[in-house]
Amino acid sequence: MARIYKDTRVDLRPYSSTTVVNILIPTQGSAQRRARFSLSALTDNNLPVAKDDEEFTKRHLATQGSLYFRKRKLYPRSFLWRVINDNRVLELHCVDLTKAGIEHHEYNVTLRLDFQEEILPCGVEFADLEEHEALNVFVLTASKQLHTLTLRPEFFRRVSAIDDNVSEWCKTCVPAPLAFSYPHRLHASSPLELFVSLDNGSLLRLTRRSGDDGSNWSPLTFDERTWGSSIRGLVRWHVPPPVKYRGRNLDQNVPNAIATTSDQTYVFVVCLNHTLKIWNLATNKLVASKDLLNRQVQQNDANFLSLNPSESSFIRVFNAERALDGEYRYFVVTYSPFEDGRFKFWAVKGGLTSQLVIEDLYPDAPLRPMDPDMTGNMLFWNIADFQIKPAEAGKGMELWVLWKNNSLCQLYTLHFNFDTLERDWYTNWVSTAMESRRQEAPPVSVSSDVVDPTEKWLKYLLQPNRFTPEVLETALAIYNEALRPLASTSSNFKKNASLPERLCTAVAGTVSLRKYADDHMDFTRYPTDTDTKWRQFWQTAEDINRRRFEPVSIAYDTYSETPWLLLSDSCAVIRECSSTELLLHNTGAELRTEGTKIVDRWSHRDLGSEVGDLFEQASHLMKVASGFRKRFPAELEAACWDAIEAEIFTEPSSSIPDRLDVFRERCDFGERVSNKIFDGLFAAMNEHLSIDNLPSEVFYAILDTIPLGPGKDSDLLATHFGVRATVNGVQEMILQTRQLLVDLLVLVVFLDGEVDQEEGSTFDAADLFSTIIPLLREYEMMHWLSSNVRKSSGKPTSDATDGSGSPFSLKKDTSSNKDERVVTILEDLFASNIKPRQAIGRSQSYTLTLGIRDVLSWVTRQGEVAYPNALVYIQCDLIAKKNIDLAWDFLRFQVTTSWATYVKGRLYVVMSEYDTAALYFRKAAYLLSCGKPLGNLHEMSSTLLDIVSVDCFHNGLPKYFQHVLSIFEQVRSFSHVADFASLALQTLESELSEQDPEYNVLRTDLLSRLFHASLKTCRHDEAYSALTRYKDVALQRSALNSLITTILTASGPGSTGLKQILHFPTSLVPNLASYVDETLVSLAKKQSSFNSFLETENNKWADSTPDFQRILQAYRIARADYRGAAEIAYRNVQRLRQARDNPSSHLALAKAKDADDQKSMVEEDDPESQEIRHELLSLINLLACVDKSESYILVERENPSSTQYTGPDYRPRNIQAQAVDDDGNVSMDDIDTESPTVRRTSSNASRPSSSSVQGHSQSYAQNQNQKPQKRVIVTLDHLRREYQGELDRVSRIERGDWEFGALEEEDEDVDGDETMIIS
Fold it and tell me: Where is composition skewed (Acidic residues) in this entry (predicted)?
C-alpha cells in the first residue's frame, strides 16, 4: 500500500499567555449570579505541576473532541474543540490555515469553558446557520443540564468583545423528559433542533423557535414501543439484557450514533442492538429498520450482536447528486465491528409519495477495510473513526478510516467511484505516513565526545516542538519523586529557577565522581553515568509524551478538501506528500504498481516530472543508504558527523579528491565498517542496482526532488495557526532531507574508497560530493534556524487583549513582555512572511505541501539571492534584534565575502571586541567601497543599515571609513574612531580633489570627529594636529579652547598641562600662539578661585582645579612675554592682598589647628604677607628682565563712581585724573602724594567691600556694562617701593608699632613713605 499522504502535527498550545480566557460557566442553580471570567497566565510559576502521568492525563489530554467547519465560507470558519481537565473544561480554538488578504484581524483567542462538572461523552455539539455569524455550542453535563452557548466570532478575536455577564450568551435548562431518564448521546442537526438519546431506548427531539436564546426547548420523544409495551417492559420477558455502561443500564434500543439528513427530514440512528433505524421527522414515526450487516435477525436470535456504548463512529449520511442514475435521495455508510469489521453502503429512496426504502448497494461484497496488521490479527487494532468525502455523481469519492492501537494510529484512504466501488475497494487503498520528527533517536554517548552529555541532552530535550513544558515538568516531578520520595521537590531548586536549570539540578546534579581503590577519581565513568541519568529521565518524558498523540477523531473539511486528525493533545493536518517524501516513504515496487492510482487521484499534479523516470532506483537507493548508515556503530556515526561539520563549516582550500581523502581519514571506514555491514550493503544494493556499476543519474534523480525556487505570490494571508502548521511541516522536511543528504554523502564517500567501479560506470564521486556538500550546508543552516528560538520580533497583529470597552481589567498595566511569544527563528524571520498558495483547482492538502516547499526555497532563494548573502541577511537580523548569543552561534555558517566580513565586524562591535571588529572592517574596506552594490543594502541587512548608512557603501573609502567610525562613536570606542578618522583623511586626499563639492564637508566632518575622539582618549598630539588643519578660524579657535581646557583639566594642578601646551609647535601655524594666549586669558577670567601659599597639598580645603592665572603667567614667561607675565603677577598681588585683608571662610578654617596637629615653627610674620612679598619680588624680577625703557605695566583704573572691587582688572580709585595723556594713561609720577590716595600700609589700610571676593566671571560681566576705564602706568620703581613698604610693615609688626583703628585719610605716614595702594 502506497503512502501518499503525510500528517503535519500542530500542538494546541495557545498563541500567547494573554490570549487564553478561562470562563466559569454557571450552573442552573447559580445562573442568577453574575458569572465572570479571567485571563489565564501561562507563564505564572504558581500554576500547579502534574505530579504523575495520571494527573497529567486528566489535566492536559482530551477525552473527546473534533473539528467543526462553519457553513459560512468566511474566516473564521474552522473551530477545534476538545474536552480536558477531567472532562470539565471545553477548550475552543480557531484553526483556519489561511485568510483573505483584506482580513487584518487575527482570531487567536483560546476559550476555556469550565462547566464545573463532568461533560458527558459525546455531549458536545456545534451548529450554525449560513446567514448568521454566531456559532452555537450545545453541551450536556452529568447533572442533565443542557447548556446553549451563542459565541460570536469576535469572542475569538478580542477578549473585550466577550460579555462580562456569561449568562447573557450561555443559557442553561433541563428538559422535562430528562427528569425520568439519563442522556446518552447528543446530536445537533441545526441551531434550532437537537436530538438526545436516552438510556431507556427512546430518542428525544428538542426544538426551539428562531430567536429563542436556548433557555427553553420543546421536547418530543421518539419511541418505537407503545405506552402499553413500555409499562409491560418494566417486567422483562425474553428480551436481551441491558448493557452496563458508566454505572447505568442501557436498553439495547438506545441510539448509540445519530445523524440527520441535510434537509432535516429524517434522522438516522444506530442502536446498541446493531440496527440502523430511520425516523421521519414530519410524522415522528419509525419508517425503516435494518441490521448493520443486513442480516435477517429475529428478536430472540442467538446471534444477537451488541455494539460498544463507548464508541460512536458507526454512521455517516451524505448526498451524491446524480449518483447511480440519480434515483436515490440519500446515501448512508455504516460500520460494524463484527465479522472482522465491515462497511455497508446504503441508498435511501422514496418517502415523499411512496414508502421509504433503504437498499444495500453491495449486499454480496464484504467491504472490510484494509488491515494495518497484514497478518490478519485485529486483536490490537480497531477503527476509531471514519469520514466520507461526497462527490457529485458519485465520482472521485473518498473514505478516510482511522485505525487505533493505544497511542499508535494509521490513517487509510479509499478513492472510489460508486459504480466501481467493489473493484476499487480491493485495489485503491492508500495510507498516510505518520510524523517521524519525534522519532528521532536520542543522543548517544561516545568516548571521543568533546561535548558534555548534559549539553547534548538539554539541546535534545528542549528542541522546539519535541516536548511541551508540561511534559518536561511532569517528568521532572516523577523523576524527583522516584529519586527522593521523602524529599520535597521544590526545596531542591532555587526560587524562580528556569526549567533548564531545574533539569540540570535534578538530573546531572545527582551524578557523583567515582573513585578507584587507590582513591583516584574515575573521570572516564562520569560522562557515562551522566548520560545514563539523562536517558532515564528521557524515557520518563517519552512515556508521558507518547500519550499526547493517541488518536481521538478524524474530521473532513469538504470545502477545502482537507482531512484533519485530532489527537489527545495536538492535531494533525493531512497533506499530500512531496516528491521527496513519495520516494522516501514508498518502495519502488509500490510506486510502480500503484502509480496509476496516484496519478488518477492527483490530477492536479504532474507526478511523472516530479519523481522522474528513475523513481524505482531512486527509492531503492534511498533505502539502501539509510539502512547502511543506521547500522553504523556509535563511534563511526560520531566520526562521520565530525567530518561533515569540518567540511561544511570551513572554507575549502584543496581539491575535491583531497577533500574526499580527508573525509575518509576522519571517518576511518576501513577500520570501523565491519564485514557484516559491508556484506549487508552489498546484498541490499544488488537487489535492484549494481554496486560496482552505479549510475550517478540515480543520485541526481533524488537530489532533483529537493525544492529549489520559491513559488508564486498569492492574495491570501496565513493565520498564526497556519504559520505554525507550515513551520512544523518545514521542520520535519528539513530533518528528513538533511538526513537523506547525510546518508547519500556517506555512501558516496564510502563507495569511492572501498568499491571499484567497472569500466563504463557513470559513478562520479567527486562531482556528487561537490553537489551534495552545498545542499547539506544549506539544510544544516535551516536546521539551525528551526532548532533555535527567540522572542517574536514581529508587530502584534492580534488585538486579543485590546481593552477598549472592556468591562473588566486584569493586570492591564503589566509589562508587554508577557505578551511576547517565543518562536523559532525560521518562523519569525521567514515563514510568517510567506503567503500561502491559492487553493484553486486543487485541495488545501496540496497547497500546504507547496507552502512548506516555498518556505524551504525562500530561506536561500536559489536563483534570486546568492547563498552567502542569504546568510548575511540572517546574521544581520540576529544582530539588529539583539540576539547576540544566537548571532555568535550562527557565525560558523558565514563565508569570507566582503559583505559577510563587514557583518562579522558589526557582531564583534556588539560583543565589545572592538579590536577584532576593526580588523574585519579594514579587511572588507576595499570591496565595499568600490564597484556596484549587491542590491538594496537596507533590505539585505534586515534594516541593520539605515538609509543614510547605505550611501557610505560603494562610494569611496572615505565614506566607508566615515560610516565605520560612526559605528564606533555609538559604542564610545573613541580610540577606534580616531584611527578610522585618520584612515578616512588619508584616503580623502587621494580620492577627492579640493574642487569636489563634497571634499570640504567631508574633510571638516572627519577632522572634527578625529579631534573630539583624540580628546576623549587623551591623544592630545593628534587632536592638535587635527585642529591645525581646520580651515574655519572660528572652529579652530573653539577646538583650541576645548583642547587647552581638556589638557589643563586632565593634568590638574602643576606644570604637566603647561608643558604639554608648550610642546605644541604653535609657531608653525599663524596666529595660533596668540589664540592659545587668548584662550588662557579667557579661562583665567572665568576662574572664581585661586591657589595661594596657604592652600598646600595637606590642606583639605584647597582647590584642586588648575590655577589658570598662574598657568597664563608661566605660559607668557615661557614665551618671553615678561610684561604680559608681569600683568598677571600684578593681579596675583591684588588677589593675595584681598585674601589677606578679607579672609574667606575656607581660609579661616584652614588656619584652625586641630588638637593632634604637629606644632609648627612660629614665623616672623603672617603667611599672607610673606606670599605677597614673594609675588612682589617675582613681579620686580619680571620687569627687570626687560629693557629699562619698557619696565612698566598698564593696569586698569577703577571707575570713581564704583566702590566695589572688580577683580583682576581693578584700578586704584585714588588716582587723580588731571594728569592724563592722549591715550588716557596716568603716570605714577603725576600722582599727588598729598592726595587721599596715599595711605599708610598698615593692616587696616585699604579695606574694599565684601563683594571684592566674588569670582571674576561675575565681575567681568559687570565690567562689560561699564564705560571704558582709564589705565595706570606702574613702573619698576614703584613696585620696588611697594616691596619696601611690605618689609617696613613687617618691621613695625615685629617691634609692636601699630595703631588701633583706621587712620584718617589726611594723616600722613610717620616716616613719610608714599606707596601706591595696589589692593
Answer: 1220-1233
Q: What pLDDT is attached to residue 182?
A: 94
Give pLDDT, residue 112.
95
Q: Per the structure block, which three cell numbers stand in for 42?
A: 501561562
Cell of 15: 498563541
Q: What is the mean pLDDT of the chain?
A: 83
SS3 label, residue 80 = strand
Q: For residues 156 and 76, is the Cβ–Cβ distance under 8 A?
A: yes
The whole-angstrom separation of Cα 1146 and Cα 1138 is: 14
Angle at 744 between CA 740 and CA 745, to 5 degrees: 115
1261, 1209 Cβ separation under 8 angstroms: no
Could you give the CA distance from residue 1211 to residue 1130 in angstroms, rounded to a whole number?
Answer: 11
Q: How far is C-alpha 367 from the geometric centre of its chain's CA atoms?
A: 53
Taking Cα atoms as reference points, which of 758, 778, 616 lies closest to residue 697?
Answer: 616
Low-confidence ranges of the chain (pLDDT < 50): 31-32, 41-46, 486-491, 796, 798, 803-817, 1093-1102, 1145-1163, 1200-1220, 1222, 1224, 1226-1266, 1301-1319
Please, which residues have CB within 8 angstroms of residue 710's CB and are 6 or more apart in sequence?
Answer: 854, 857, 858, 861, 864
3-state DSSP helix/strand/coil % of the chain, to nearest 5? 40, 15, 40
Cell of 174: 433541563
Q: Is the dihedral of CA 1015, 1017, 1021, 1022 positive or negative?
A: negative
Q: What is the pLDDT of residue 485?
A: 59
Supply φ then ψ for residue 368, to 5 degrees. -90, 135
pLDDT of residue 227: 57
Strands 521-522 and 1192-1196, by their bridges, are: unpaired
Could you tell me which of 206, 148, 205 has the C-alpha nearest to residue 172? 148
Three-state DSSP class for residue 435:
coil
CB 1059 within 8 A of CB 1052: no
Q: For residue 796, how many other CB atoms are within 10 A of its CB? A: 15
Q: Which amino acid is at 570?
A: S
Tell me what pLDDT residue 1026 has: 92
Q: What is the pLDDT of residue 184?
A: 96
User: Pairing mode, if any, of strands 110-114 and 20-24?
Assistant: parallel
Q: Cell digits for 1168?
A: 599672607
Contact 900, 894 (CB under 8 A): yes
C-alpha of 929 from chain center: 33
Amino acid present at 540? T
Domains in the chain, please, with CATH? Answer: 7-42+50-437 (2.130.10.10), 1131-1145+1164-1319 (no CATH)
Say if CB 1025 and CB 978 are below 8 A apart. no
1046, three cell numbers: 581638556
Q: What angle do CA 467, 473, 476 make, to 5 degrees?
A: 105
pLDDT in tens, 1177-1226: 888 888 888 887 778 888 776 554 443 433 334 334 343 334 445 454 54
Beta strand spans in 811-907 (E): 822-824
- E strand or H helix at 206, and its extent? strand 203-207
CB-based contact 1061:1044 (threshold 8 Å): yes
Q: What is the pLDDT of residue 486?
A: 46
**What length does the chain have?**
1319
Strand partners, 573: 8, 564
Residues 6+ positions from 452 with CB-CB distance below 8 Å: 527, 530
| CA 231 to centroid of chain Cα atoms | 69
* Cα–Cα dist 1026/1004, whole Å: 10
CA–CA distance, 770 with 660 (Å, rounded to integer): 10
Cis check: omega of the bond before 48, within 30 degrees of 0 = no
Phi-psi region of 141 (alpha: psi -120 to 50; beta: other; left: phi over 0): beta
3-state helix/strand/coil string of 651-664: CCCCCHHHHHHHHH
Do the Cβ atoms of 125 and 771 come closer than 8 Å?
A: no
- The pairing of strands 551-557 and 562-567 is antiparallel
